[in-house]
Amino acid sequence: MHDCHIPTLKNQRQIPPPHCFPLPNPCPIAVSKNDLMAQALHIVNGIVVNDDRQWRADVLVVDGKVHSVGLDLVVPAGVRVIDAAGKYVIPGGIDPHTHLQLPFMGTVSRDDFDHGTRAAVAGGTTCVIDFVIPSSRSESLVDAYDRWRSWADPKVNCDYALHVAVTSWSERISSEMGILCGERGVSSFKMFMAYKDSMMVTDAELYRCFARCRELGAIGMVHAENGDLVAAGQEHVLRCGVHGPEGHELSRPEEIEAEATERAITIAHQVRAPAYIVHVMSKGAADALVRARRAGRQCFGEALAAGLAVDGSHACNADWRAAAAYVMSPPLRSDPTTKEHLMRLLAVGDLATVATDNCTFNADQKALGKDDFTKIPNGVNGIEDRMAIVWTKGVETGMLAPTDFVRVTSTAAAKIFGLYPRKGRIEQGSDADIVVWDPAAKRTISAKTHHHNIDYNICAWPNEYLTFKLLMCGGRS
Ligand code: URP
Ligand code: ZN
Ligand code: ZN
Predict the structure, then answer these.
(1) What is the structure's pLDDT at 175?
(2) Looking at the DSSP assignment, which residues form a beta bridge with residue 442?
């Protein structure tokens, strides 16, 4: 077995591993619950890929777990066989950043825990980590967490876990963080440096949050943008007469993201806590993170599928709806070389994970900001296409090896968020979250065929084909 290693948590009090809430019936292919062999699957002739190795091996799955991996496995008669010849057998994807049915900016994101996880599974992601965000600074974090569970548990179509957002600081919040870690299995907290007057925390509050995370052995995550400068930038851009979606990036340029990234890592370092920077969207922010890593700071960066697939040029589309579809924060950048820059940093490990920040709003919801870009609900899709985008833009271009693909889409998130090696790896005893990935199968991303609850898809660009097919989640296919 591999150690569940979160390198940053050395010498700290260890908390129990976080909960990952499984499906109620993880193995619906079962003919009879008492007959283990009826629940078994034998995946033969494929190339098994973990983050550290790829090799020709068969995989035997029994009762939702990987029973054995290798050649010449002892397999009882009657077990269902899947022929994976010519295909890769990889750990199911883990998307560590989603916002399903999130109440946000006066509305609620369209992909709920049903649609969102259905889309995830359709794209090869078998575990998502969503964010509990308290409805106000006075709401109890524990109540908010329990509310999220009540929304998600009846609806999810794959395993999931929860991060919790901390949007203010007090003794009560500090003690609730302890309850969440000790009793609810939470191991990660997110703080916003943006969204002034709603979720934004001050530097002093951020410092206290990181200190408490360190005490608890949890990891602090940060939305890194300078919220005061964003507010000033928005006012200025509106005053200049720019009201459309093109004003979004103008009001929050790269340096505002880069400055906050450096500041977040600096604050975390004061208490020797690691910092996980969510949605690194610009070269400036990515380079700030790389500089900090070279200086020995413990920090992880997260790229988004959208940031690897598209750029900010769409904000100038004359069709308001098409432009508004791409509005998210930090913005997709107008520098078209950003995508490749981020992929190269994933290849060398300076960026750790690829998430989606899936937070979808249909055109009518986006129209809340028809006359004022600051009111366009922020968020894009990606949960369904993340794996295909990384394969097409990373592996097919030669920037990533299949092992790197597994690392950035699954293993790294499992390690950072305490799910490894139960998830993020195919080996004896791990969850049978397995994708049989066919590099020859092509499909075109399209809003007509996707599983999202919106009628557009920002990743659906013409004439580009993406790959994959066939998966199992908790041993079911
Ligand atoms: O635009 C975004 N990213 N929407 C979701 C909320 C957040 O900031 O993560
Ligand atoms: Zn964010
Ligand atoms: Zn987010």
Answers:
(1) 98
(2) 467
Res 397: pLDDT? 95
For the chain of 477 residues, list the mean pLDDT of each consecutive stretch of 10: 31 47 42 50 97 98 95 93 95 98 98 97 95 97 98 97 98 98 97 97 98 98 98 98 98 98 98 98 98 98 97 93 96 97 98 98 98 98 95 95 98 98 98 92 86 92 56 54
Q: Is the CB of 379 under 6 A from ligand 1?
A: yes
SS3 411: helix
CA distance linking residue 93 with residue 62, whole number of Å: 20
pLDDT at 462: 52
Residue located nearest, by CA, to atom 1 of ligand 1: 328
**Dihedral of CA 324/326/331/333: which sign?**
negative
Residue 82 backbone class (left: φ over 0; alpha: ψ -120 to 50; beta: rest) = beta
Task: Name the 3-class secondary structure at 121.
Answer: helix
What does the alpha-carbon distance between residue 187 and residue 126 come to, in Å, rounded to a whole number?
A: 20
- Within its chain, how far is the Cα of 114 from the centroid? 17
- H helices, E strands: number in the chain: 15, 21
Distance, CA 151 to ligand 1 centroid (Å)?
Answer: 20
- State if residue 109 touches ligand 1 by the CB under 6 angstroms criterion: no
The separation between CA 127 and the C-alpha centre of its own chain, rounded to angstroms, equals 9
Contacts of 476 (CB under 8 A, 6+ apart): 26, 27, 28, 29, 64
The response to whether residue 359 sits with its C-beta less than 6 Å from ligand 1 reads yes
Of 108, 328, 368, 373, the residue with max ligand 1 atoms within 8 A of its CB, to mutate for a pocket test, comes to 328
Question: Which residue among 108, 329, 368, 376 is best mutated to probe the pocket of ligand 1, counting the most ligand atoms within 8 A of its Cβ?
Answer: 329
Question: Residue 439: what residue type?
Answer: P
Rg (alpha carbons) of the chain, rounded to whole number: 21
Ligand 1: residue of 100, 230, 359, 376 to mutate (most ligand atoms within 8 A of CB) is 359
